[in-house]
Amino acid sequence: MERYGIPYARPGQVVGLFGGSFDPPHQGHVHVTLEAMKAFGLDRVWWLVSPGNPLKERGPAPMDRRMAAARNVMQHPRVEVTDIEALTGTRATADTLTALQRLYPQVRFVWLMGADNLAQFHRWKDWRGIMDSVPVGVVARPGDRISARMSRAARVYAKYRIDGQARHLLGRAQAPAWCFVNVPMVDVSSTEIRTRGEWRAEVLPE
Ligand SMILES: Nc1ncnc2c1ncn2[C@@H]1O[C@H](COP(=O)(O)OP(=O)(O)OP(=O)(O)O)[C@@H](O)[C@H]1O
Ligand SMILES: O=C(O)c1ccc[n+]([C@@H]2O[C@H](COP(=O)([O-])O)[C@@H](O)[C@H]2O)c1
Question: Which Gene Ontology BP annotations are present (predicted)?
Fold first, then answer.
């Protein structure tokens, strides 16, 4: 498999980590990335193309294919598409963050996700450890704004929520800190694209 190497960030920079299956990547991912970069005062964003979501039973399309598609879809001078979890050998986000904080002790990381992931966040390995170690930026997603706001993570960490109007402070905030931004939404999902047969069909052997 092609190796992409480890991404670059200068000491003191704020890097948003946007993890996903990207099976396939789409304009919703691009939208979240650009909105988050602007909203939270991020210097860069790294996409973390996951070898496999620990909570999903169905394995994704091969890593090389998702990486190539992600690089095609997401082109921006301050955004890097990475396979860093393949390098660190981690699957759970808590473990990936520990590895990245060791590799980049002078970089400030912010975890980014769509509202649907906040609704499920309490099911992730050591989710409180994640909240306690990095600021978390959440971007609205069609259909998930209410479930995200009512989620267990949102309730348990209610007092650490940064108001949307102060969103630009998130990048340099001390964890725990999280912020939900109610930006215009893009209604697209990988499931929908797979259902239309526009992605899976191409990975089947001839
Ligand atoms: N349209 C969107 N709006 C906001 N966030 C999104 C959107 N699409 C994906 N995300 C976020 O991007 C991250 C990666 O998502 P993922 O790669 O699973 O895409 P997906 O479209 O949710 O895929 P699937 O339909 O297979 O679950 C998650 O944090 C998810 O919440
Ligand atoms: O750490 C966990 O337990 C965990 C559980 C579910 C999802 N995640 C991460 O959440 C990100 C989004 O996953 P997905 O499949 O919804 O695109 C991706 O980086 C996953 O590794 C992490």
Answer: NAD+ biosynthetic process
